[in-house]
Amino acid sequence: MEQDGTVMRRSFKFLLRPTSKQAAAFTQMLADHCSLYNAALEERRTAYRQCGVTVRYPMQSAQLTAIRSFDPERQGRWSFSSQQATLRRLDKAMRAFFRRVKAGEKPGYPRFRGVGWFHTVEFPKDGDGVRWNSTPDDPVTRVRFQGIGHVRVHQHRPVSGNVKTVSVKREGDRWYVVLSCDDVPAQPLPVTTVSAGIDLGIAHFLTTSHGTHVPNPRPCQTASDRLARIQRVLARCERGSTRRRKVVTRLAALHRKIRRQRLDHAHQTAWTLVRTFDVIAHERLNVAGMVRSPNPRPDPEQPKTFLPNGAAAKAGLNRGIQDAGWGVFLGVLAHKADSAGRRLIPVDPRNTSRRCPNCAHVSSDNRRTQAEFVCVACGYTANADVVGALNIAHRAGLVLREARAA
What we know:
This protein is an alpha+beta fold and 406 residues long. The protein has 2 domains: 7-185, no CATH class; 195-221 and 255-395, Nucleotidyltransferase, domain 5, CATH 3.30.420. The protein is built from 11 helices and 16 strands. Helix 1 crosses helix 4 (80-103), helix 6 runs antiparallel to helix 7 and helix 7 (242-276) packs across helix 10 (326-340).
């Protein structure tokens, strides 16, 4: 069902089930594309250092035919268009580098990629080097890759829209196919005539202006003992040993599990919100800035010494914010609100926890503790998170409801 003909671009990610030979071929494909990326980066660096010449994507793309003819075993067997996408990936990194230089930011020159740090190969067009659902008469969905063959796909949901680009991605010992589709129709939900503001937090994952608290799952904190135990084992392993590789694999698998738990909670919470409310207001948060470490405070009286800056306490808050995954959740919420025809309103977060929703008095003394809000002007008392959600709703111009007592 479409909403006024609204269509959008969406991605679909499915688990691949390759055979052992196909998995080895995928690994070789990543290694060869990584080699191409590093060789192209070295060409750019050498040309600029020795001759002052800036090599760009069209020049490197024109060399692909000769490269494939010279090395048919490693480069000639893979899709030409996927190799062009790898070169465009480098070109994008270089353009971002020069943009940061001009803006006076930290440049961050593109680095050479190790095989263990190159996990994705993109195919710019379905049908060119890759074919999605290559056996439509087969009940099992398969995707065909040039140089690898037909690979089984665990398709857990239907694909809508037109498949434009296809990517193969490695996550640990698993392989995934990612489809980017155009013209995906929106699926608006029935109107509820209910609006709300939401306040993200640490004690509670979020609180609505109607007084509902969503608990914080804290997946990383829950698994902290297991993480510490594996990291202690890793510290005792000899570098380059088989045992160390196995321990690294265990640690990576646990981190992937934590990430999946966090993402699953974000999807479920966002889906509950868009089903319940027509309009949702939230704080416009700069999460990356919120988790930065505080700047050092040099002691003016003693050179080369520093004053306390609260870094230890800030580190605990940073871990809590990162474990909650506010940025991930807000991205998922925006995606689902867009698809469901809901309205999402970001508001200015300043003083949302200090303003009284009853008399509009703003003071840092209003919030005496993390959980309690007591207005020093009118004596209004409520849960501090509910007060924050009410102020967010007020700034978005929504109809306020009386805050429930803590």
